[in-house]
Amino acid sequence: MKRIVCFGCILFVTLGTTIPVLAQNLIIYPAKGQSQEQMEKDKFDCYSWAKQQTGVDPMVASAASQQPAGSQGSTVRGAARGAAVGAGIGAIAGDAGKGAAVGAAFGGLRGHRQRREAEQVQQQQVSQTNQRISEYNRAYGACLEAKGYTVK
Q1: Using a CB cutoff of 8 Å and minimum separation of 24, what contacts does 47-53 make?
Q2: Which pTM value belongs to this model?
Q3: Is residue 63 a contact partner of residue 46, using CB atoms and an 8 Å limit?
Q4: Using alpha carbons only, how large is the chain's radius of gyration in Å?
Q5: Distances in Å between the alpha carbon of 3 and those of 6, 10, 88?
Q6: Is the Cβ–Cβ distance between 26 and 141 less than 8 Å?
Q7: Do residues 139 and 58 lie in contact, with contact meaning Cβ atoms separated by under 8 Å?
Q8: What are the domain boundaries of the chain?
Q9: pLDDT one-digit tens code per residue, 86-124
């Protein structure tokens, strides 16, 4: 039983010190002389409260915002599909080579447009994530200030 309690203490201290600090990069000063142990407990309590109030877990939100952007593979695939369709149309018209070239050009343009649209969607998602983390930071800071800390 002691091992479980000690593990719980270590887990509590670890979560209390890493999650809030990594999430916001805030400077927190114990304005009422709180001990380091009390400050860690308060930080964890405020992390939990702010997460519950805003529905935002900054650790999950920041990991989601760091996903890689789309690759150029969509342009290549689009060109290949366009070439295949163009070759088929060209074969019907009597010049498969010309049809493939035209189809590849249109397919490549479509793939480029799709990639550009995907990048715009990702930028919007990053912006929304940043806005939600900002809302979380306000709640987290308000909680700490209510507990007697100066937050910058």
Answers
A1: 47/15, 47/16, 47/19, 47/20, 47/23, 47/140, 49/139, 49/143, 50/136, 50/137, 50/139, 50/140, 50/143, 51/136, 53/139
A2: 0.55
A3: no
A4: 27
A5: 5, 10, 71
A6: yes
A7: no
A8: 2-151
A9: 555 555 655 555 666 666 666 666 777 889 999 999 999
